[in-house]
């Protein structure tokens, strides 16, 4: 009858290694869960602050970054102000000296010749012929200017009229007269024309 092989320590080693493998896997799982737990807070969004609170904290941080000014006496502050004023006065003095020198050099230079003055030509005054419709005002007549023209698009004859005030020094024109008036300088609030001649008397 064949003898059964005795259990050797080599056969028992795999059984002993099994719990160790389980412990290692458990340890890895635990470390993975810890890593996830550590990463979870980092993934959370940062604290959302209202705009006023955010600005207040920024101002506080900026004020903390600025080094505190050492306490100085009133005499020291006055001395600082006087030193600053002297420095600014020196800058102004140099600027004014440069400006004076520049103006002096500009005056000594030969001036450019002036362009010849343009000859004055009197403008050509407009003249209009119309009919006197009023002579009640003193030395003033109201003249109606009739305009007859053909319409550009439709070809229809269009008649329009306008009135203007003219100066009549001798009060020669009367209602119904056909007169010629010429443009002139403003003679009153409404008069910009002057009587030239009476072409035809009213019948």
Write up what this structure looks like.
The protein has 203 residues and is an alpha+beta fold. Among the domains are: 77-106; 127-200, OB fold (Dihydrolipoamide Acetyltransferase, E2P) (Beta Barrel), CATH 2.40.50. 42% of the residues lie in helices and 23% in strands. It has a five-stranded mixed β-barrel. A hairpin with a 6-residue loop joins strand 2 (140-150) and strand 3. The longest helix has 35 residues, at 9-43. The radius of gyration is 55 Å and the shape is elongated. Residues 11-16 have low confidence and may be disordered.
- Order of strands, main sheet, comes to 1-2-3-5-4
Which runs of at least 5 residues are low in confidence (pLDDT < 50)? 11-16
> Into which percentage range does the β-strand content fall?
15-25%
Using the coordinates shown, work out and report the CATH topology of one domain: OB fold (Dihydrolipoamide Acetyltransferase, E2P)
CATH-wise, what's the superfamily of one domain?
A: Nucleic acid-binding proteins
- Return Rg in Å: 55 Å
Number of strands: 5
What's the helix count? Answer: 3
Q: Termini distance? A: 174 Å
Q: So, CATH architecture of one domain?
A: Beta Barrel
Percent of residues in helices comes to 40-55%
Assigned CATH class of one domain: Mainly Beta
What is the structural class?
alpha+beta
Which descriptor suits the 3D outline?
elongated
Order of helices and strands: HHHEEEEE
**Sheet with the most strands?**
5 strands, mixed, barrel
Kindly report the average pLDDT value. 82
